[in-house]
Please model this.
Amino acid sequence: MKNIFAIFLVFLLFASCTKLEELNVNTKDPTKVPGESLFTGAQKNFIMQMVTPNVNSNNFRLFVQHWTETTYIDESNYDITTRPIPGNWWNSMYRDVLMNFKESATVLAADGDLPGDGAGVLKNKQAIVEIMTVYAYSVLVETFGNVPYSEALNQDIILPKYDDGLTVYKDLINRLNNAISTMNPNEGSFGGYDNMYYGDVTQWYSFANSLKLRMGMVLSDVDPTLAKATVEAAFPNVIASNDDNGAITFMPSQPNNNPVNENLVLSGRNDFVIANTLVDEMNNLNDPRRELYMTTKSGTEDYVGGIYGASNDFTKFSHVNPALTEATFEGMLFDLAETEFLLAEGAERGFNTGGTAAEHYEHAIRASIEYWGGASEDADTYLAQADVAYATAAGTWKQKIGIQKWIGLYNSGFASWTAFRILDFPELVAPPDAESVLPLRLTYPTTEQTINGANRSAAATAIGGDAVSTKLFFDKN
Model:
């Protein structure tokens, strides 16, 4: 009897433990995150990082002298180390973007599709995740050069090696080609989980081909044969309308509002004005986008830029147009204007891009003016000017395209920075107190030097030195 009673007590003990454990489980919350939700988060993180003007991580609007600072001017003078800017950019891309895209792909492969979806929908989702993964890795390579790739995002490899940037870039193009080849526009994809195209695979197909076009053009000075093949395969299917631009519309409130709104309005700070470099060029060309990009100087009808790299009184210069600082203003990854400028560059290099350089150049400028709210007549007048018309504008084709592309990529700082490093226009003069030349890359994060020192040192040696002045493999001139 005692043994039976003892057994009964043990049974009660285990039963009670089980019930107590169940009480600690929130049965209303999922225990596993769907691959679709992981994609949504990674997509948001990526676009947020690309468009934020936060000086702790994204200073590309300053590097290309679209904006300049007012009181705290370190970043306008190319100080990227007082704040851990390279590390913040690096960590965001690897931890918040690429890791979540990888996990999304893993969960989708393991769990299949949502109920009611077929194999074609799953393939499209996997292709879209891959497209965004390629994009994010291309940004890292264009920022640093050699980066962890083959051993990256592997929890079993604490100290990943760095792979050759050019080799990585070519592999990314292969991955992009494979993703494009599996897409089926007749099937759906992420639907509402996709905040850029809402699951429209036809638009994703155009976006992927525009990305392919850009990556081909990045290689144009280092591997012309591959560049030509890549560009010519992409151009028939690139973005062809501002309606197909790759952008997301932000929400009215935090934490999903426009990062420009976060940093220029909600912060209550007056840290930026439009740089004189941009304002002077647009004034000289009587550019109709001035009123769309910026305000006039307070109390006047004049557009006046702050001196780049100097301390600037916020009240005395042109500010960012309030439309750009609205909470819901969209964040752009790729647009028609950039696509057309890339096609113009390709045409000048002898690639078949479906038109002449002059035609694509004109289309790009029209697309930019119309995107920002200008009228077709504004574009006609602007393009009729001798200093703007492709046949009569000053300089080489790199200068003509480079200056107009720089103007057209306003509010797309990273893309403008990459374009500047390839085309070498406009001529950006460093401020007198600059700590270095205009950065041609970001240095490796300090944490990589201390934790992954041997691999970081080998990478630094391979690219010619871990300095902002080191030209990356695509920057040949």
